Amino acid sequence: MTQRLDIVFAALADPTRRAILSMLLEDDMAVTDVAEPFEMSLAAISKHLAVLTKAGLIVQEKRGRVKWCKLDPQALRAASIWMQGFGQFEAVNLDAFERFLESETISQSTN
Amino acid sequence: MTQRLDIVFAALADPTRRAILSMLLEDDMAVTDVAEPFEMSLAAISKHLAVLTKAGLIVQEKRGRVKWCKLDPQALRAASIWMQGFGQFEAVNLDAFERFLESETISQSTN
DNA sequence: GTCTCATTCAACCATTTGGTTGACTCTTTG
DNA sequence: CAAAGAGTCAACCAAATGGTTGAATGAGAC
After folding, report:
1. Which run of H or E residues covers position A60?
2. Which A-chain residues 36-95 have CB contacts (< 8 A) with chain B?
3. Is the pTM of the predicted complex or chain greater than 0.85?
4. 3-state SS, one letter per residue, for B6-33
C-alpha cells in the first residue's frame, strides 16, 4: 500500500502527466493523439503513459494497431483517502476545481 | 498553481515524508524528535523537512535552539481539489483511512 | 508483398533525488 | 567562558527521472 502511494504520487508530480489525465477526463484517446498537443517526442509521451499505467491511473488497451488510453480513477482513491486524513476538507468545491483546471493548461506543463 | 502541485505531489511521493506527516498529525515535534524513529541521519531528515516546508505541507518555527515542526494541511487542499475532479469519491471513509494509517508504518518507509 | 502508420525499445545524456559524512553555527547550560 | 545540544551546510555519491534520437516491431491498407 505504501509502495502504491509512492508511485501514484510520483506519477501525479509531473505536469505533463497531470495534463494527460485531464485530457483523458474528456475522452479515451490513442497514444498518438495524446502526444499531439505536446512539444516533446512521442517516445517521451509513451514513457509518461507507462508511468501512469504502472501507477494504475490509466489502463491501456490495444485494438488493432492503436493503443487506447483510458482514465482509471481507482488509483486516485487510495491517495485521496490518505489525504483526507489531514484536515477536514470541505465537500468538493466544483467551482474551485473548474477554475483550477483552467489554470492547469498544457502550455504551462511543458518543462 | 501547476508548479505548486508539482512540489506538493513530489513531496508526498516519499514514504519517509508521508510517515513524518502522519507523526505530525499527532502533535508538533522538534526536528530531533522527528528523526528519532528513522534509521537515517539527522541531516537526511532535515532535508526531508525542507522539502515538506517548501511544499507548504509543514511550517517550522524556531523557539530557542529547537525548531518546531507543525503540520500545515492547507497545501493538501489544492492537491485534494485537483484529485476530486477524477471520479466521484464518496464521502470520506474514516474507517478505511484508519486501516490505511495502520499499514503505513515507519518501518516500511525506510528505503 | 510492400508501404505506411502506431508504438515501443535501446542507448545515451543532463539533472534531480535521497542518502552519507564532517565541519560549522547558534543557543543553552554549567 | 567552555562544553554540549539542536540543527544546517557543503561536498560528495549512486540511483532514478525526463528527455533525446534512431532502429525495431506489429498491424492495416494498397
Report:
1. strand A58-63
2. 71, 73-74, 76-87, 89, 91-93
3. no
4. HHHHHHHCCHHHHHHHHHHHHCCEEHHH
pLDDT for res B87: 55
Indicate if CB(B46) is under 7 A from strand C. no
Would you tell me which CATH number, out of the four given (1.10.443.10, 1.10.10.10, 1.10.580.10, 1.10.260.40), belongs to the domain A2-110?
A: 1.10.10.10
> What would the pLDDT profile of A19-47 be if each residue is shown by its tens digit?
999 999 889 999 999 999 999 999 999 99
pLDDT band at A76 (very low <50, low <70, confident <90, very high): confident
Mean pLDDT, chain A, as a whole number?
Answer: 81
Task: Tell me the C-alpha distance between A51 and A17, whole Å.
Answer: 9
From the CA of B95, how many Å to the nearest CA of chain A? 10
Closest CB to A100: pick one of B1, B13, B73.
B1
Q: Which residues of chain B have pLDDT under 50?
A: 88-111
> What are the residues facing A67 on neighbouring strands?
A62
Domain boundaries, chain A: 2-110
- Give pLDDT tens digits for B12-23: 999 999 999 999
